[in-house]
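job 3f2a | input accepted
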Amino acid sequence: MRKLDTANIIEEIKPHRELGVITATCLVIGNMIGCGIYLLPLSLSRLGSISIFGWVAASGGAFLIGLIFARLSQLLPKQGGLFAYTLDGLGDYPAFIVAWHYWFVAWLGTSGMTVGLLAYLTIFFPDLASSPYTKFIIAMIVVWGLTFINYRGMKLAGMIQVVTVILKILPILFITIFGAFYFSPEYFKPFNLTGETDFSAIGTATSMAMWAFIGVESASIPARYVKNPKKNIPRATLWGVSISCLLYLVASFVLIGLVPNQEMQTSLAPYATVANTISPPSYASYMVGFVTFGAIVSILGGMNGWVLLQGQMPYSAACSGLFPKSFARLSKNETPLFALVVTGFLISALLFWHCFLDSENSFEIIIKLAGFSILVCYIFTIAASILLKKNHIKNYKIGAVDIFLTTAATTYIIWGIYNLDSLIKDIALPLFLLSTLVFVFIRYRK
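job 3f2a | predicted structure (446 res):
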């Protein structure tokens, strides 16, 4: 195992560039379409069909942010993605905040997807729902198995990502296409169940749907492994976010019109419930099995992508001297083994909490915390983008496109943070302050 401890080590080592544009695109799609599309209909059904506007708003915001990242990656295709942009544009402290919160996003995302995986496994193994010990053992096998795959190398992880993306889209297309024949506008009633104004309900739906769109930046983070990164990362980002947004919008709209709201609210596996509803009785069990298998593959693919990133971000920060040097250690396969292992233990602790302490509320808390953390990353990156362009483009003058993208994306992010509930804000603020204390401690040690 090699220990890397110089600030520019990322640029000094010439890794095998194993990710092409297709694989990088699949990384974006795979990380965006994980378990969100399969589990969020349950949480959003409690708001009413007004939640579809949350999907629309989140899709628009994600596309705006995707455009910003595509433009930045073309200008500065460096390892770490949004961390590298913030470091170059704003300096050490903001870059550390981005790395810290994105690391949180990665292991919260993996944890949330594992919760979703366990929920869909109960379709095949009903007794699993009442056995926390069995759930925890399965979760550990999956999490550490994917950690081992990512330890073995980027090429293997990338191949798995391509295969799982193909398999995960098939059930969504099946439900969307065949479900359109059973679509009933009557199921869009009730429209707003929150007891609040429509605008407030849409804000709540958007803040929850943001979880499903985390990952637009995925192709930029492992930049040192991407072939021709200046060209392929922007392409992968725009292709990935466009395909994901389109699937989310169409599938979510159709899904609302297939099952009564009350039935959706009691379903642990919404897509399996829909498959059972639209399939002929003699084929229902097969269709439920097909959709459930697709959901499980989708979640595993998303987990694989996030496990990949949860090692890359602390590694990038450590190579720049902003995380402890141990996180910059590479295995013989040129993968950040120490970062992967530490993050694996953090995920294990969170899943222990889910399985044994609070299985009912843990998923929503996890996705909302991840949503807050990614918005912090995005706001710093957007702020850095203008200064970064000024640093790298001679005689740069801010144009109308930059003003529009920056203003629109910032408004979307502030609105998302505003609509988070008080519990998440109470948890998120101490975590933000903790990141500052950790930064001071690391700088003091240096």
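job 3f2a | The mean pLDDT is 82.
job 3f2a | closed
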